[in-house]
Amino acid sequence: MKVRDVMTAAVRVCAPEDSLNQAAQAMWDGDLGWLPVVDGDAKVVGVITDRDLAMAAHLRGAPLWALQVADAMATVVFTAKASDSVRNASKLMSKHQLRRMPIVDGEQRLCGVLTLGALACCAVAKGKRPLGPKDVAAILAAVSAPRPLAPTETMVVELVRESALADDVLQPAPRKSSKAAPKAASKASPKVAAKAKSKSKSAK
After folding, report:
1. CATH classification of the domain holding 114
2. Which domain range does residue 95 map to?
3. What is the C-alpha to C-alpha distance for residues 1 and 123, in angstroms, rounded to an integer?
4. Is residue 204 over pLDDT 70?
5. For residue 149, is it within any domain?
6. 3-class SS letters over the chain
7. pLDDT digits (tens, 9 = 90+) for 75-85
8. Is 14 within the bounds of a domain?
9. What's the pLDDT at 143?
10. How far is CA 136 from CA 67, 77, 85, 110, 123, in A?
11. What whole-number percentage of the chain has pLDDT above 70?
12. How many domains is the chain built from?
């Protein structure tokens, strides 16, 4: 069985120059957590997830409408062709921990998406089945395995808020000045307390 037999051909997409707000709306409208990013020739140039949207807004300190898809999308994209076998495509998804994968033609133009759900349907469908339930379970286990943590240096670079002074950028509320602690709440150190007790006894 070929990928074209099980892939989803009708795919929502976004462009690198779209705002993250537009991408979020497309995900909401399609009940999706992921979108392929294509250029003017429908060639796949990246992918973006709902998590990418949230983290881009958080780390850059800006609203979704102020950022572009190009600011948050992943540019390393693994793809398969519609003519590939389902088994080979599933191996690629397992290797790179992909829950969904863009399907492209010979010129890298998007023509569909292969999802883990589609593979599961193949496993239980009647007739010729390229994958069995155990195969899908193995793919799911590989995809769900913990990934290495991202380098701390990357997070530090992202936290440099270059747009912090720009207009309409969300700013954290200023902290209220802390009130001085009541004198009764302060406690003397053990040494100071010992000296005071010694003077009290000598005075008697």
Report:
1. 3.10.580.10
2. 3-158
3. 12
4. no
5. yes
6. CEHHHCCECCCCCECCCCEHHHHHHHHHHHCCCEEEEECCCCEEEEEEEHHHHHHHHHHHCCCHHHCEHHHCCECCCCCEECCCEHHHHHHHHHHCCCCEEEEECCCCEEEEEEEHHHHHHHHHCCCCCCCCHHHHHHHHHHHHCCCCCCCHHHHHHHCCCCCCCCCCCCCCCCCCCCCCCCHHHCCCCHHHHHHHHHHHHHHC
7. 999 999 999 99
8. yes
9. 66
10. 37, 22, 15, 25, 7
11. 65
12. 1
The answer for residues whose C-beta is within 8 angstroms of residue 38's C-beta and 6 or more apart is 13, 14, 15, 44, 45, 109, 110
Q: What is the pTM of this model?
A: 0.64
**Would 73 be classed as within a structural domain?**
yes
Question: Which residue in the block uniquely carries the two structure tokens 């100071």?
Answer: 192
Contact 169, 61 (CB under 8 A): yes
Mean pLDDT value across the chain: 76
Residue at 20 is within a domain: yes
What is the residue type of 149?
A: L
Pairing of strands 110-115, 44-49: unpaired
